Amino acid sequence: MEKHIVKADGNGAIDVNGQVSPVTYTVSLKQGKGRSYEVDIRLMAPRDWLLQRGFERDAVLVIQSGARIPVYHDGGSHNDDSSRRDVGRLDAADTLSIELTARDDSCTSEVDLMRKYLEFNGADA
Q1: Residue pLDDT, tens place only, 35-49
Q2: DSSP 58
Q3: Angle at 101 between CA 46 and CA 41, to 5 degrees
Q4: Which has the closest alpha carbon to 104: 50, 17, 25?
Q5: Neighbouring residues of 86: CB distance < 8 A, sequence distance ≥ 6
Q6: DSSP state of 106
Q7: pTM reported for the whole predicted model
Q8: Start-end of H helices in the chain
Q9: Are 86 and 39 in contact (CB under 8 A)?
Q10: Residues 79, 65: Cα–Cα separation, whole Å
Q11: What does each C-alpha distance from 71 to 16, 58, 59, 61, 101 come to in angstroms?
């Protein structure tokens, strides 16, 4: 079972094909393997806004530090037909609010983590 050490909210921007909009997101920190850290990132975005900008499966989240994190729509939640060629691609049959997620395990020290994820500064561990 994964144990989240710290959870924090942040304000950033979502970039879909060069079109940027403000967004809030949640970051959850957990201990990775060895001395590494894993950060789960989650945000919700309006389906229609994403579709109007040509979103299919992925976008870029610009977090408070300015780091750019690829975020993904897992897709397939609205249709169990795995024979479709566009499984995972966002379409009008999806829910109105779309969850985009990412997992970042690039931080190998607490210093790296605090530089990249300003959201955790001052958070209670």
Answers
A1: 789 999 999 999 999
A2: E
A3: 110
A4: 25
A5: none
A6: -
A7: 0.81
A8: 47-52, 110-116
A9: no
A10: 37
A11: 10, 6, 5, 6, 5
